[in-house]
Write a structure and sequence with these properties.
Blueprint (H helix, E strand, L loop, with lengths): L6 H14 L11 H38 L6 H10 L6 H10 L1 H11 L1
Helix pairs in contact: 1-2, 2-4, 4-5
Length: about 110
């Protein structure tokens, strides 16, 4: 009896991997075994960094808020403590955006806390 290998499915699997690695440098984009390793590693990095991105942005917002409140004689921690104490429901993303793009509005928030 002849051996059955289902070449259609095998080729489909390989083509799927090679399509995802299109544009990679050298053998990473056109040799299946190398492409599989590269793709798995890349997908792992993508998964990890979707979470890391959230942490990085939070750190950026904290730095921006801290730099914005410095001229008013406040530290970041004191400012955030007063924000929470006065029930001002603005998150760090919005505060950082105000500090950069709307300094007058941010000054109003700082003045309302003093």
């Amino acid at each position: 009896m002849p051996r059955s290998v289902n070449a259609v499915a095998s080729r489909k699997r390989r083509k799927k991997v090679l399509k995802q690695t299109k544009g990679y440098w050298g053998a990473r984009g056109n040799v299946h075994t190398v492409a599989v390793n590269t793709l798995e590693k890349g997908l792992g990095y993508a998964y990890r960094d979707r979470r890391a991105k959230k942490r990085n942005f939070r750190g950026l917002w904290i730095q921006r808020i801290g730099a914005a409140v410095q001229p008013y004689g406040l530290s970041y921690s004191v400012f955030m403590g007063k924000i929470h104490k006065n029930n001002i429901n603005l998150n760090r993303k919005v505060l950082a955006d105000l500090a950069m793009n709307e300094p007058d509005a941010f000054k109003g928030i700082v003045d309302s806390l003093k």
